[in-house]
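hey so i finally got around to running the thing on that chain from the lab meeting. sorry it took forever, my laptop kept dying and i had to restart like 3 times. anyway pasting the input first so we r on the same page abt which one it is
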Amino acid sequence: MTPVRARIGESAEAFRNVFANKGLRNLELAWAASIVSTWAYMVAISVYAYDIGGEGAVGVLLLLRLVPAGLLAPFAGVVADRYPRERVLFFTNLARIALITASGVGVLVDVDAAVVYALSIGVSITNTPFRPAQAALTPSLARSPSELTAANAVASTIESLAGFVGPALAGILLGVVDTGVVLLLTAALVALSTLYVLGVHPVEPATRRGLEASTIASEAVVGFRTITRDSSLRVLVGLFTAQTFVAGAVQVYIVVIAIQLLDLGSQGVGYLNAAVGVGALVGGILALSLTGAKRLSAPFMLGVVLWGAPLIALGLWQPLALSLILFGLLGVGNSLVDVAAFTLVQRAVPDEVLARVFGVIQMLWLASVGIGAIVAPALISALGLESALIVTGASLPLLVLLTSRKLTHIDSSAAAPDSTRLRLLTSTPIFAPLPGGSLEHVATRLVPLRLDPSTVVVREGDEGDRFYIVAEGELTVTQDGAELTTLGAGDVFGEIALLKEVPRTATVVAKTHAVVYALDRDDFLAAVTGHPQSAEAAENVVSARMAGPAATGYRATVIGS
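ok and heres what got predicted. didnt touch it at all, straight out
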């Protein structure tokens, strides 16, 4: 079998596994109903704003909806890190249902536009915790690293379908019913999402510390700190933010192009958005080939370029057929960016702060989309529509060119671990219960050590700083000068000193040439104590070791130091 065919087979298998996993399946369906509602609501409220105040009102409303929500996103990430994430999804949806229903009724009874705008802002704010909680919950439900990447590809594909179904549905409905009715239907979709959320049950969710009012600000800063201290994340998030700025401008350009340039009317807004959705669906299918890929910077950069180049072409030519194709290419780029960026972040960031990092990313996403939406009308006024499209589109390929060298370093700092490391972890009772995303994160933290014979790895009485897994060769374990046993491939040692905070209980020396993988104390404790089943397995191992081989019958695998 060729490598390409093997990769396709692995991707298809991972895709099937996502839907065979009940928790992931319900999460993906909840996301589908939610994002379809979001797209349909956005089109309906944009058309409402255009009817009230023209293109300027569209940009102002997008800014007012997105920027406040963006500023609150890091705090929403704190909530999703501190409370069960499935409950965060549930209560977020309940608030959205109430506010969307109120805005729909407001339009139907012809209340003041300011009231509808205020309710629309509220919808955007209450929706803020959904995406960070959903993205952070995904790794805990995935059963393997490849399933995690596949789940991200499925989520992106669903978003692509939603980008087609939501706008198309809104466009069709706007042609036959009042805008208020369309808004009420979007509330019904959120209710459907809530039903699927009720079916999301993590097998054994980690116990999370409650949130105190005095700690909210300090904990929100953790997400910023995690990004700023990692140069690879800084580059990734910076370019992702630039892409979303352009996405915000595109939301205004679509309205103007559909109504003024192509003379398609308000229904055309839905049709052009649907073209983006179709392209994103194609991109989502292509993104499935990224399942298990170790290098994701190249598809990420390609996706960013595909958000810029079509705008340049649109500024030069606007035949209807070509316009639809170019908007479709924007969608392809969107899928590639989403899958590559989300997977890289999930690989690089520890679970305990993952929602806060996604909260910061969502803050930047919402703020940049809102700013892009408010800048677009100014560009159109100053340069004309065609020149505004060219200037906006050229910015992204230029940024990719300037940052490409740094972006390639992301793969080395957040690369998927090799199969040897994952195999070692999954064969170890302490780590085997961890979900796929956590396993992948731990695997990237393992440090390989090549040992010559007689090398002392740990010494009895010393302070414990690492946990070890034997990959090759043999090591001898002694205590008080007496030999206890010999360790071989697959055996582990070093956890007693870390878990019990005591000095090393034995000395381990390489008997032959050997390879061991070391895991630092903090990474070991964070992985084991943060997952109840792993914590229980580790406690069982420690208890067995301290009882002694004679009492337990355990072999070398459970001899520790």
